[in-house]
Hints:
Structural class: alpha+beta
Strand content: 15-25%
Distance between the termini: 42 Å
Radius of gyration: 20 Å
CATH class of the largest domain: Mainly Beta
Number of domains: 2
CATH superfamily of the largest domain: Regulatory protein AraC
CATH architecture of the largest domain: Sandwich
Order of helices and strands: EEEEEEEHHEHHEHHHHHHH
Helix content: 40-55%
Amino acid sequence: MVQEDKMPHFYNxxxxxxxxxxxxxxxxxxTLIAGTCMKRFQSGDIYIFGANQPHILKSDPVYFDKNxxxxxxxxxxxxxxxxxxxxxxxxxEMNNVKKFMESTxxxxxxxxxxxxxxxxxxxxxxxxxxxxxxxxFIQLLQALCGIKKYKTxxxxxxxxxxxxxxxxxxxxxxxxxxxxxxxxxxxxxxxxVAHLTPQAFCRYFKKHTxxxxxxxLNEVRINEACKKIVSESFDSLASVAYQTGFTNAVTFxxxxxxxxxQPPKKFLTEYMQKIx
Length: 276
């Protein structure tokens, strides 16, 4: 199934489905969560989400402003490997494609060096009709499985066992965190959002994300800090720390380096060098 979306913002809830999903983001920026991965997405990115992998493309807050005229645009191809196409993959000639599709369970991002080639194939699938569309889709998969260095999104696929009710609960946790990350979110508060005791919440969150809630909250904050730095919408790095929920610059610097691999000052310097 081919789906083209032009709308004010991306679907704003954590969700999953039986189909493997290939999405090219033509226009739009925000935060991607896929399994244990959280990262910034932007125009031009192409992602492949594995079957039943919980994911969300949360558009930046500016897209939800009531006066916003912004729009997102994406082209997505879905395929259910449990259906008729799955039997095509059993053909000897499709062995490499079958192995590739199995490798997408944790989600992957297409490297920038291969974007143009993959985009060309996706457009062919979009424009084709009837049996030619199927042929073009196989060409797309052949092109994808020929790429050697993918960026894997999630570090595990254990999250695929998540039930529908747990998915709704995790969505509530994510939404609350991404809305209130600038505040001092206590364990009691976030546990209340999940309708669990603090102790039960800690076990629940670690089970489904393989990280503590504090680690996830810090990832959200640093992700937002990077967005502010890249957009150059700040007075100083210290102000970025306070605007993203950190109570002091020392903690901000330590957490920033732990998550990104470099201190915020170096991150800013390297970014400025790239654009100049």
